Amino acid sequence: MSAPAIPPDRLRIAAHAKLNLFLRILARERDGYHQIETAFTLLELADEVVVSRAAAGVTLTIDGPDLGPEEENLAVRAARAVLAATGEKFGVAIALVKRIPVRAGLGGGSSDAAAVLHAVNALAQHAVPRHELLHFATRLGADVAFFAGGAPLALAWGRGERMYRLAPLPTAPTLVVVPSVAVATPDAYRWWDEMQPATGRESFKATGRESFRATGRESFRATATRGPVLLDAAAFASWGSVGRLGGNDFEAPVFGKHPELRTVYERVAQTGPLWVRLCGSGSAVAAVYKNERDRDNATHALGRKDVMVITTNTRALAAPGPEP
Question: 108-123 and 142-149 are packed helices; what angle lies between their axes, rounded to 10 degrees?
Fold first, then answer.
């Protein structure tokens, strides 16, 4: 009988960026959270996360921009959640190479947290069942749940934590344009709140939530003033059909506060993409193209003055797990 395999003490995992193919904000709840509906897809653009076993505690080193206090970092909080659930039998050292721009709406921090959840659990020999790990993800943040699930394409609703996997779209050449201005998600939600009539913000409580419960996964009810949105599989059959879906509700408030972002959006839209949107709550703008030539022509037309331009692709495969 062969000896049991010795688990590795050091794991590497890619933490991919995401795009919101559309994003509708349905209402603000009294506790400050927002009900949304959206569709996520993965990008090849990714941070690199290395998690190593340590004697105790959690440490974080970052190759990239300052991400703020370590105690507030989602990756650190993710590690502590798994370690606490497994009896604090060891600690971890997290080394993070940041390639996903921060405060750009690409989900880098949430993706790092999901990667750490899986890596620390793998070091613990998968002591936490997958369904519990996904619950940890939802408590960390709505986007974390999408990344932890690993699906390349998913519908999400509620606070973003309720999801339905979809068949992935074909891989497509993608351009991500990152302006110098950054947008914090809480600010973007606050700007959206300020644009809504008081009655509209609360109408979801009486109408939209019950419609959500009644209609299930295939149709989604917005506030009474906005009307229903009906989605079916054909809406995600191709990039052309995705391009005809609704837009991103953050665009109006964010462009209102930062007109220079509207200018970037309009410049990208003029390069002939199949799909173009503000990324999440901003500030990046992303576009998907029919082929690499169109994307490369767009890159040349946009130039790199006052913006960072990243060429990547959408991802049609599930996110990879931790590897030694």
Answer: 50
Indicate if 18 belongs to the active site: yes
Report how far residue 194's alpha carbon sits from residue 253's, in angstroms, rounded to the nearest whole number. 9
Contact 84, 123 (CB under 8 A): no
Is 232 marked active-site? no
User: Which pLDDT value is given to residue 231?
Assistant: 77
- Tokens 């979801």 belong to which residue? 204
Q: Are 116 and 12 in contact (CB under 8 A)?
A: no
Residue of 295, 265, 11 lying closest to 172 (CA atoms): 295
Mean pLDDT, 10 residues at a time, over the chain (324 residues)? 70 98 88 89 98 97 92 96 97 98 96 98 96 95 93 91 92 97 94 78 41 36 47 87 90 97 97 97 97 97 91 95 88
Instruction: Please pick, among 18, 47, 249, 294, the residue that the annotation labels catalytic.
Output: 18
Distance CA 132, CA 274 (A): 38
Q: What pairs with residue 102 in β-bridges? A: none
The token pair that represents 269 in the structure block? 């839209």
Q: Is the peptide bond before 219 cis (omega within 30 degrees of 0)?
A: no
Tokens at residue 203, please?
């109408």
Residue 121 in contact with residue 133, Cβ under 8 Å? yes
**Half-sphere exposure of residue 79, counting CA atoms within 13 Å on the CB side?**
28
Alpha carbon of 221 to those of 112, 184, 249: distances in Å? Answer: 32, 27, 15
Q: Is the pTM of this model over 0.90?
A: no
- What three-state secondary structure class fits 272? coil
Catalytic-role residue among 47, 98, 112, 143? 143
Within 8 A by CB and 6+ apart from 270, the residues are none
